[in-house]
Amino acid sequence: MQHYNIAKGNSFYAIGLNYKKADAVTRGIFSLDASSTQLVYEQAKASNIESLIVTSTCNRTEIYGFAQHPFQLIKLLCDNSKGTVEEFQKVAYVYKNNDAISHLFKVGSGLDSQILGDFEIISQLKISAKVSKKHNLLNAFLDRLLNAVIQASKRIKTETEISSGATSVSFASVQYILKNVSDISNKNILLFGTGKIGRNTCENLVKHTKNKHITLINRTKSRAEKIAGKFDLTVKDYANLQEEINISDVLVVATGAQLPTVNKQLIQNTKPLLILDLSIPKNVDSNVNELNHVTLVHIDELSKITDDTIEKRKSHIPQAEAIIEEIKSEFISWLETRKFAPTIKALKNKLLDFKQTELEAQRKKQANFNEHQANLVSNNIIQKITNHFAHHLKSDAVATDQSIELIKKVFQLEETS
Predict the structure, then answer these.
(1) Out of 9, 152, 196, 348, which residue is the most buried by the measure of CB atoms under 10 Å away?
(2) CA distance 291 to 270
(3) What is the pLDDT of residue 36?
(4) Domain ranges, ordered by start, for the chain
(5) Residues annotated catalytic, as ranges
């Protein structure tokens, strides 16, 4: 059994839900915005949770952390989202210890992404780690594990072609527009929302549509202006949203709002309008489907890309998994070392006590006692003994827990952290 319980009685868990079993509506119910996430960390602190990180994207909401029972983490999620425990149980997963570690590696390496090889999640995990650290909820285990996952994702990105070929939600959106809207370079495109997906979509729109009629609207106008400046695009005020929708041929919605901001009442004309909703929770009310001239496509439909790019990426999965196994085994080795390090330290201290007692005795007995030489020899012997014990405890053939208990018993050790 690996050493997960840094605080006694705790195990490491990954709890959450993703696109595999939870549809967009359910993912929306359990999604955590910045303020909800802040509340999760505060509640965790108040509940004496030792360490955790929270991640919530359009495809998944997950909590990784230490608890005596996974329900402690599930409660944190349900208390701070609109979801209930009953709903969670229908679509969720709970991984423990080794399985939780493996799951985090898969997520961070793009193997569990809705679009295989999409690495956007790794930057989200880095942000989550920073927030956790601010709340003093990032212990040595989780910090080291996240660094190992980041290392694996970097190597997979550079050593394999699992993310080759442009495929992401933002790219898929633009591909859909190119296939379904004729003469796109002369159509009016409105992008509402300039978060990460919005920014990426904007970049892909400029690159692939050769369109100069792209308008950006964001609640915080300065953010839209920053992106518009980069691509020489038009920015309009949030107050102009309805007016801009009514002169658009394509509307891309990528906001982080918790309730729909676009509905059929905003659409006053009758010319064909394609709406792509890239938001979780959904930001376009389904009542727009009542308008015959409107076509609404949601992120889940766009993510079902099974083209040649994805098929080619699948062939690189074994290579990616081999990299994960290599880095994961290094992490497990560190974990094992961490498990017996206090015992080895206590053993060394005990042997140093023996040395001091013996040196004092010899000093009194021998007039010409060479203390320097005796010190040197005894230190070398102590180092050799502790190295042998450490090597023994690292061995796969050894029942580490039993060996540690035996060493403690024989040398009457009291561990210090």
Answers:
(1) 152
(2) 8
(3) 96
(4) 11-164, 169-304, 334-374+384-411
(5) 58
